[in-house]
């Protein structure tokens, strides 16, 4: 048994601390929601990346700068929030000018592209650790939560899954794939795209949402737990990239798409009543979300089907556990 | 020459990043100020503490939990902000239940006393590093900044200085003092009191403010630089505790009070025109700020006087430099 991040937070923090009345959503979703204004809520998200845990010495500094903001913007996207500002806490073992140039370039590109301004932070000396706290806004009461899915709702993912996990598996020499495929999946691992516009467009349409940082089954599991529902997934519909389908067996590909993290796609649910509106919304979108299943009333149970037959993951592969000391790496993402 | 925190932030971040129009104060004050509402501004501060840099293995876990929130609340106080919410990024090498219990107890006490709610965060595995981003609010345009001091303004500090530095010096065996004094100054090092109520009461009265995290001369220096002024300090007025005056020579005491950090008192300036209002305000306060000097027009120059005579620090003692690799410890505080 591992002592997971969720246990740490629940045991020592969530249940012990008194809360202000203006806190609408606290620990336990992709971000927090607090009341700031009669018409808008503030959404606050925090993600940390630690050297040797979330990235290694081979990761380009520009990718680290890109990714630390991308994973925070992905949390904002999962809440339906419009990004505004972020703070940076940077702990550095030394002043490496080349690294700082690359890191700040990646960060600046994301900051300016998504119009999310760096407003402050703290620089300290110590083992390389980077924390960003990002702020966004949503119209009052419109934040997307994990807790609104209902039986019968359709389950979507925003784009192909498993690429980042494939890149990591190749890096760690657990899998070998052709070079041109490796380059493509490395882009996805190093430079994830937060689904910021999609997240905002889902306000009032999606009944729940989360971003996939730990693997589809693990993150969908948070929706199921928070919403007290289950899910049935049709694996035939699971979107897979060319590198995945051309380099791997079907079982390998499905396993990665279901359990590997770092893709930062959105997973969300749409009620039948909103499906027409949703289809219209995405009709002309460049990246079209894919419907992969349906919510059931079977609490916390996920049924997987392939070609109409039940399908099971190899034993022990149930998605990534945060802060698993038995595992090789930790992982980021607000609990 | 050391490559300080200020250079890192200015070189790689401040001047390179485009900013949104709603950012009113960014990197370069105790916190950032952003517009959220027609009547209120949001103040955001961030501070990191790293094991082996900001605290050592002898620091009680409860003190670490107290202090990481206290230093953030102190930044909010220096901006005149009312605390509201905070996020916690906690990187842990292992799950140590005793440590987590102590840490979360210290954090909870501060959180509840100052009505500042824990709203989220991230728990990761890695070298012990703690970052808090705290949020407060001020009436629109009323945040206290470093940049408003004018020649003739009176310079105040909120309470006795140097105690935390004395505790550290004793811990590091650079000084020896009687036990009963050591216990008192340790309280100040481990459990600093953020001057939250004082900070808010200074809105509209103080022309500038900062919290003393790095030493009076260093932090007053930020006010002088931001306000483009100088200062004359009367060291006879510098408030010193009994442990300081009873255990140290006058020179040792003044040196600590001027240059040692970690006191988290406020330093602020009050224009002559507001002095009557200010005196009325503090007449019945339990902790009375002390006037220690006056702002001059002599850009960035600090004149020290004792008994009406010029006084100089021993060479090389000019206050703490953030992120100084030549130094034994790094330091927290937004640049």
TrEMBL record, chains A, B:
Catalysed conversion reaction: thiamine phosphate + ATP = thiamine diphosphate + ADP
UniProt enzyme class: transferase
GO molecular-function terms, A-Z: ATP binding; magnesium ion binding; thiamine-phosphate kinase activity
Binding locations of Mg(2+) 2: 47, 75
Domain PurM-like C-terminal: 150-298
PurM-like N-terminal domain: residues covered: 28-138
Record-listed ATP binding positions: 121-122, 146, 213
Residues that, per the record, bind Mg(2+) 4: 30, 75
Binding locations of substrate: 54, 262, 320
Additional remarks: Reaction mechanism of ThiL seems to utilize a direct, inline transfer of the gamma-phosphate of ATP to TMP rather than a phosphorylated enzyme intermediate.
Protein name per the record: Thiamine-monophosphate kinase
